[in-house]
Amino acid sequence: MLLEVRDLRVEFRTRDGIARAVDGVGYAVDAGETLAVLGESGSGKSVTAQAVMGILDTPPGRITGGRVLFQGRDLLTLKERERRRIRGAQMAMIFQDALSALNPVLTVGDQLGEMFVVHRGMSRKDARARAVELMERVRIPAAAQRVRDHPHQFSGGMRQRIMIAMALALRPALVIADEPTTALDVTVQAQVMDLLAELRREYRMGLILITHDLGVVADVADRIAVMYAGRIVESAPVRDLYRAPAHPYTRGLLDSVPRLDRKGRELYAIKGMPPNLMRVPPGCSFHPRCPMAQDVCRTDEPPLYEVPGGRASACHFWRECLRG
Ligand code: SF4
Fold this sequence. Notes:
The protein has 324 residues and is α/β, with parallel strands linked by helices. It has a domain at 246-324. It contains twelve helices and twelve strands. The chain has helices spanning 45-53, 80-89, 98-101, 108-120, 124-137, 143-146, 156-168, 186-203, 238-243, 248-255, 295-299, 318-323; strands spanning 3-14, 17-29, 34-38, 61-70, 73-74, 91-94, 174-178, 206-211, 223-228, 231-237, 305-307, 311-313. Strands 6-7-8-3-9-10-12-11 form an eight-stranded mixed beta sheet, with helices on both faces. The chain has a four-stranded antiparallel beta sheet with strand order 2-1-4-5. A hairpin with a 3-residue loop joins strand 11 and strand 12. It is globular and about 70 Å long. Bound molecules: iron/sulfur cluster (SF4).
């Protein structure tokens, strides 16, 4: 297994108390596989990714437990120097907002080339040539000229392609893309997702795709892990999850995605808001919003039940949910 996260726990200490942002999360991704991690904002999906990458803000964040096994080594036991060596070269991240992730005062050629100078010891001239190749690979027109441009001279979609090029420059084994298309319009979103999927296949890398939007992952992910209030509440192969979700929260998310075959019908909206992580409801944290909640849900926290077909659901009534 390329990456295995086991029972990861992250807390944030604030003046009002402790927020358990990640509360026993586990997932795995193999080479050539795409795992989509889905959830509303505040569900813990990005914090989990930051802990995996080793870029969590500490303090106020603190990893209080768990293991992050990357190619068999527990990253949480490594020194920062070793982690830095792994970051960029073996695992890389694509951020939502390319404009703030790229350096505004350097040309994109210098930023891309820097990766080869620092990690591969290349000359500036060779590094520049590699930067042009990379820009061509992510289909930036007139790459040989545009390599001298600064980030603000590119459109949002083109900037996101440059971010992808930077992440893939050193051919990492694992890429984590955190809402990589959220800031883009729908057509450009589809092009960027297609490009990511194509490069993932070509480089045989593991890809973790973090998103709040079920609509963008159907065609690119192999598995989905759904997070709610710091925990994984459902995980399943993508087709099975779309066909028959085993958790009412996933069902609610699916029903709130616009679909052509439901034209004219009102879109479903999950009632209420995700909980404040300092005051997570007892029992099942989803119970105040759940249309299937029973008395037991208000008192007993559901474990992550095994569901046939390599699936899992943290719902006492997953069988009923599967039946629709
Ligand atoms: Fe809903 Fe109960 Fe299942 Fe939680 S355990 S998702 S409240 S039915």
